[in-house]
Design a protein that fits this description.
The chain is of the alpha/beta class and 334 residues long. The protein is 34% helix and 24% strand.
C-alpha cells in the first residue's frame, strides 16, 4: 500500500499492525497517514482547499442551495467537503484533521458570488492578509494567496460556472475571524498584514504530532543513506536528484530526523527551513524578515555557502543540498 499523496510505500509490518479495515482504507485514500504503530492519523484540509470549496458553493448556489461540493485538490485527490450555500453566499469550516496545533482549525471561510460579465474573477476581502512589502513573486498589497491555492480556486470556480450555466461571475472571499486570528500565525513575522493566508501545496494538512514524528524517525533509522527534506517541493526535487535513495519528508523536525540517521545522510530542500536550521542567526543584521527576502540580496550566495560550510565542518556525515523552486542547486553537493 502506498500513500497517494507522497508516494511513500508503507512497510508491510505497518500495514499488518493496522487492525481496522476502515483505517487502512483511509490511509489508502490519502486522507489518512499510516504510522509505524499501525495507527492512522487523519489529514485535514488547507485554507486553500476550504476556500476553493466555498467559492464553488457560492457560484452553484446562484442556481440552487448547496450542502456539499466535490473538488480536485492540488495533489490530485478528489474530495467532498460540507458547505452552506444559498443565493450566492456560502461558507465552509476548515477541518484541520488531527493536526494538534493548527491555528486556523475551525475557522470559517466565506464567499459571495455575483453574476458579472467578463469571465471569472476572484477578489480577496476582509480577513485575508496582504503583503506589506515586496517579497519574491509578490508585490506590496497583493493578497496572501499561494499559487497552488489560487489555481485550485479558479479551477473549481470555472467548473461551477459551467455547471450553473453562468458565463461570468465575481466572487469575493473573506474570513471574518481572519484579522484577529492572524496574530497567532507567522504572518506578522513574514510581512503579511490584515488577515490569514490562503495556502495549500497539496490541499491537505499533515497531522504532524508525536505519533507521526515517531514514524519519521523510524523511517530514517531504517534507511540506508536517507535523504531528508522539509516540504513538498523539496520532496519532488530530492527524488529527482536521488532516485535510488529513500527520501523522507520531515517538515520542521530536521534535528530529530538527523539524530535518527545511522550513517551518511543528505539534507535537501528549499532554503527557508534548512538555512534557519543550519544557522539560526542567518537573518541577523540583514534587515530581512525571511530567508525568501534574503535570497534577493547579493550577499545571499556568500551567506548560504558559509552556513553550509560551517555545518558540514561540525557534521561531516551530513551532505546539505539547497535547491530553489525551479530545482536549481543553489549550494551544497560535494
Amino acid at each position: 500500500m502506498r500513500d497517494p499523496v507522497t508516494d511513500f510505500p508503507y512497510p508491510e509490518e505497518w500495514v499488518r499492525a493496522c487492525r481496522s479495515e476502515e483505517d487502512r482504507a483511509l490511509a489508502a485514500s490519502g486522507l489518512g497517514v499510516l504510522t509505524s504503530s499501525g495507527k492512522v492519523l487523519r489529514r485535514g484540509y488547507t485554507t486553500g482547499t476550504t476556500a476553493a470549496a466555498t467559492v464553488k458553493a457560492a457560484i452553484l448556489s446562484l442556481r440552487s442551495p448547496v450542502s456539499s461540493v466535490e473538488i480536485r485538490i492540488p495533489c490530485g485527490l478528489i474530495v467532498t467537503l460540507p458547505v452552506r450555500g444559498k443565493e450566492g453566499s456560502a461558507a465552509c469550516t476548515k477541518d484541520a484533521g488531527e493536526h494538534p496545533r493548527d491555528v486556523t482549525a475551525g475557522v470559517e471561510i466565506h464567499a459571495r458570488a455575483v453574476r458579472s460579465p467578463g469571465g471569472i474573477r476572484i477578489e480577496a476581502g476582509e480577513g485575508i492578509g496582504r503583503f506589506a512589502r515586496e517579497v519574491p513573486g509578490r508585490r506590496k498589497g497583493d493578497p496572501a494567496i499561494s499559487d497552488p491555492a489560487m489555481a485550485c480556486i479558479l479551477n473549481e470556480a470555472k467548473k461551477a460556472a459551467l455547471m450553473a450555466g453562468i458565463p461570468g461571475v465575481m466572487v469575493t472571499l473573506s474570513v471574518p475571524e481572519g484579522k484577529a486570528l492572524a496574530v497567532r500565525t507567522l504572518n506578522p513575522r513574514v510581512g503579511v498584514e490584515g488577515g490569514i493566508s490562503i495556502l495549500g501545496t497539496t490541499g491537505l494538512v499533515e497531522p504532524w504530532d508525536d505519533h507521526l514524528a515517531e514514524s519519521v524517525r523510524d523511517r530514517v533509522a531504517a534507511a540506508d543513506r536517507p535523504v531528508i527534506t522539509t516540504g513538498r517541493i523539496g520532496l519532488r526535487y530530492a527524488r529527482m536528484l536521488y532516485p535510488d535513495r529513500e527520501v523522507i519528508l520531515a517538515g520542521g523536525r530536521i534535528a530529530e530526523a538527523l539524530d535518527a540517521a545511522r550513517g551518511e545522510v543528505t539534507l535537501c530542500g528549499l532554503p527557508g527551513l534548512i538555512l534557519r536550521f543550519l544557522d539560526p542567526s542567518i537573518l541577523e543584521g540583514t534587515g530581512c524578515a525571511t530567508v525568501a527576502e534574503l535570497e534577493l540580496r547579493p550577499e545571499f550566495p556568500r551567506l548560504l555557502r558559509q552556513a553550509v560550510d560551517r555545518f558540514r565542518a561540525s557534521h561531516p556525515r551530513v551532505t546539505v543540498v539547497i535547491v530553489d523552486r525551479q530545482g536549481r542547486v543553489l549550494g551544497g553537493l560535494p
